[in-house]
Amino acid sequence: xxxxxxxxxxxxxxxxxxxxxxxxxxxxxxxxxxxxxxxxxxxxxxxxxxxxxxxxxxxxxxxxxxxxxxxxxxxxxxxxxxxxxxxxxxxxxxxxxxxxxxxxxxxxxxxxxxxxxxxxxxxxxxxxxxxxxxxxxxxxxxxxxxxxxxxxxxxxxxxxxxxxxxxxxxxxxxxxxxxxxxxxxxxxxxxxxxxxxxxxxxxxxxxxxxxxxxxxxxxxxxxxxxxxxxxxxxxxxxxxxxxxxxxxxxxxxxxxxxxxxxxxxxxxxxxxxxxxxxxxxxxxxxxxxxxxxxxxxxxxxxxxxxxxxxxxxxxxxxxxxxxxxxxxxxxxxxxxxxxxxxxxxxxxxxxxxxxxxxxxxxxxxxxxxxxxxxxxxxxxxxxxxxxxxxxxxxxxxxxxxxxxxxxxxxxxxxxxxxxxxxxxxxxxxxxxxxxxxxxxxxxxxxxxxxxxxxxxxxxxxxxxxxxxxxxxxxxxxxxx
Length: 480
What we know:
Arc Repressor Mutant, subunit A, 12 helices, 29% helix, 3 domains, FAD/NAD(P)-binding domain, alpha+beta, 5-stranded antiparallel β-sheet
């Protein structure tokens, strides 16, 4: 019997798990996929926004500003990466400058304290690749960039250290409540009992809610965003996050430096019916090419190394929907967490626990340890430390991914770690093997064989990402 089952292990579910692990409760995180952070968390802009954009007096505005500050604390406790880029919102004429002034007032109202205007000359002095026709820029120095799924891994690892449990490959297929107890059916067979349910199921939040509620108060509206990824060679092309003026669709197409030196261009914002269609489109990528021309000149499109798309968990409710069910006691919705959801995530967790769950009168976990240690990548270490590690484990001396300088030992650690994984993309998420210029063209076969060896599986059983996605389907070089 659990006190809380959390459905979903994206950035929201994992930050909630960590926050609840500060208390003396029994927690289980359920994830239908074979890995943490497989959906919205892995396919977003990675920006920790300042709070200049959300509508005044909303949860989005409040929790965005609070969440931005909490990332500073999380960096120290969980050793997550933060790149303090700052940001510019740029205007090109008098009319756009008026909108920029409105954003300035909104930011102040939302509690953003670090904010100022830059003239064209001041902005170009800092970012020489801004377009020549800009007239003014709004500077937001509290804007940062992180590595979203690393944050989710860190939060869940820390929650597990503090007593939480995690179960992947566990799709919730039915929910029933008898008396005060929920019975959660997993994969059409296993029944798990809990006193409370917290749904952090992202774009599937309404699907989960329909299992227990007759009248769900919102409907999810999948919104696809597409991106270009530029190679690390373009590092310093732009040092700040660059925003256009926001529209009804959202913040628009951005230029976003990343913690590992790449730059993202995107996202688009396209409503669609499908909740899991994440393919790129010619129209979407062409839109990015056109829109980004208003943000920069000399854009190095010849350095694009990949494209990707993700689904945002927008909904019909015009704010974050963080509430107890009006029909079912102790069923809690955490839904509609689109932008700035990544930024707000740690504040969402605190808001849920401290305000929405206030009546539960939770007792502190006296043994809670906030610290999660993560060693630096091997190639960042000094020569002596590297040599010592190679003596201790010779696999550190075998470089597998030459683009990202990832060793065989690091791949093995990604397989066997606290949240280890045995898929190609799972290793890419943890160790960055395959994230470079060749996108796994040279190292993927070796990684596949390492996974097979370490997990004692045949190579044709190794999946690319989710279940039933084998890399090797059939032999192509066989004797007649």
